[in-house]
Structures are given as C-alpha cells and as structure tokens.
Design brief:
Blueprint (H helix, E strand, L loop, with lengths): L7 H15 L32 H29 L13 H25 L2 H31 L8 H32 L5 H27 L1
C-alpha cells in the first residue's frame, strides 16, 4: 500500500509562518530628553515645556542689546561731562528720594536673583515669590522716579530751564524706559511660570538684565552726585 509523502513546500510554509508569528514586533527607539543642568534644558522639576528661543540665540541677543545700551549711555555721560564746563551749567539739587529709589532698585535686583536660583533648583513657589517681588520693586522704583520729577518741578527745576535739568530728565527717562522694556519681558515670564511652562532661561535673562540696569543706574547716580 503506497504511503503518502508530506509536502515539503507546505511544511516549510507553515514553519515560516510560525516563525513570523513567534518574532515579537520591534518597538521604535525611545528618545529621552536630557535633564542636565544647562540653563535652557528641562530640569525635570515641576515645570514642563520649553522656551521659545534656543539658549545661544536668546543670550546672544540680550548681550548685544546690553552692549548697544552701554554705548548709548556712555555717549550721554561723555556729553554730560563735557557740557558741565560751559558757563550756563547750574547743577540742580538731587532729590533725597533718589536714595530711596536706589535702594528699591537694589531690592528688585536681589529678588530677581532669588527667582533665578529658585528656577535652577526647581522650587516653583520661591520662583513665583521672587518674580513678583522683583516686578513690584521695579514698579515702585519707576513710581519713585516720577515722584522725584514732581518734586523738582514743584521747586522750579523744569526741563528747559537749564542744561543740567535737561540732562537729569533725559538720563532718568532713558533708564526708566529701558526698565519698562524689561517689565514687559518680566510680565511674559511671570505668565509663563504661572501656567507651568519651563521658564528657567527667561528668568535668567530677566535677572541678568535687572543686574545690568542696576549697574547702569548706580553709575549714573554717582555721576550726578559727584557733579
């Protein structure tokens, strides 16, 4: 009686099919974001998301801007010192309120530094407190500068009355305008922090800019006091 032979092609097909089923599907590689200590990276803390600009571009832009502002104030200071030698220069008395305003601006810079440190360590509550304090002190400084203007005006020291008056109003106004620009960035950063987005880079840039404006103001204040 003839024996039936197994179909080798069919057996091979079945084994191949079984082999395919036995091979588990490969998962796509997982890309993990670094949690290093860089200023622009994700620190793995309670803040998530990302800043709009890459770290080098944002920092470079800020440093270039501060360089331009430094040149601007250097030209004004040079002109101020030169103009003092003319006969029509009559120094105006510096309002004592400027001392208080200077202290307030120092507190604002300290608060921004506090916020920067808190952002690096992932302490969201301290970050919010530091940002709010820095902004409040900055607004208080601007209000104090306007109050000093009012005091000078009430004493008869108007803008066009004397070149020294003109320079005082010009210097304080330019510094105040740059601080207002910083407050715009501060407001955006504060909103970003309250919404839970990553904002370490933004906080760092705000702190650097605050320190820069503080140094500029201290130099201008000393110049006005000594002359």
């Amino acid at each position: 009686m003839p024996q039936s032979r197994a179909n080798p092609v069919g057996r091979g097909t079945v084994e191949a099919a079984q082999g395919v089923r036995a091979t588990p599907p490969r998962e796509p590689p997982v890309v993990r974001r670094g949690t290093g200590g860089g200023s622009g990276g994700n620190d793995g803390g309670p803040l998530t998301g990302g800043d709009g600009l890459p770290l080098p571009t944002a920092k470079l832009g800020l440093w270039v801007f501060m360089g331009v502002v430094t040149v601007l104030f250097s030209i004004i200071v040079s002109t101020y010192v030169t103009r003092m030698g003319f006969a029509d220069w009559r120094p105006l008395p510096e309002p004592r309120l400027l001392w208080l305003n200077t202290g307030v601006l120092i507190l604002s810079s300290v608060a921004m530094q506090w916020a920067q440190v808190a952002a690096r360590r992932g302490r969201i509550d301290s970050l919010r407190v530091g940002l709010l304090a820095g902004g409040v002190f900055a607004w208080a400084f601007l209000a104090g500068q306007l109050w000093a203007w009012q005091q000078l005006g009430a004493s008869g020291y108007f803008l066009a009355a004397n070149p020294a008056n003109t320079f005082f109003y010009l210097i304080t106004a330019l510094h105040g305008l740059h601080l207002c620009g910083g407050l715009v960035a501060w407001g955006k950063t504060t909103v970003k922090v309250w919404r839970g987005f990553e904002a370490r880079l933004s906080v760092e840039l705000c702190a650097v800019y605050w320190h820069f404006l503080l140094v500029v103001w201290l130099g201008l204040f000393v110049l006005m006091l000594t002359h």
